[in-house]
Amino acid sequence: MLVTLARFLDPWEAHVVCARLRADGLFAEVANDRMAIVDWPMAYALGGTQLQVKAEDIAEARAIFDAYRRGELDVEHDSANDDAHPEPACTCPPQGPVIPWGERALVIALFVLGGATFPTRTVGGLCATCGKTRPA
Fold it and tell me: Is the pTM of this model over 0.70?
């Protein structure tokens, strides 16, 4: 029998935690995730996306989930490899990022076909002056 370990409003977070539980050898399933993706307001009515585990594994699953919530399972960034080959950062005065033509074409197509646009990157990107990556 499966019991609900946690409820999420973001179905993707539920899948991340489910994958972590499965990696630790526990049986875990995500319920109502497709409804949350297709009909987001209905997800609230259903109580969100449910992460379910076997009843006999609930104590171990709760310990892993609590460690996830505290941030103890975050992967540390390996800065030793980054220091060997640092990426040059742009030092030019701010002029706004360059939006690649592929993203511009996508935004134009979405506007023409659907009447709505999705936000493009406004932070980071390539510098118009030197072509290096702007810091985020």
Answer: no
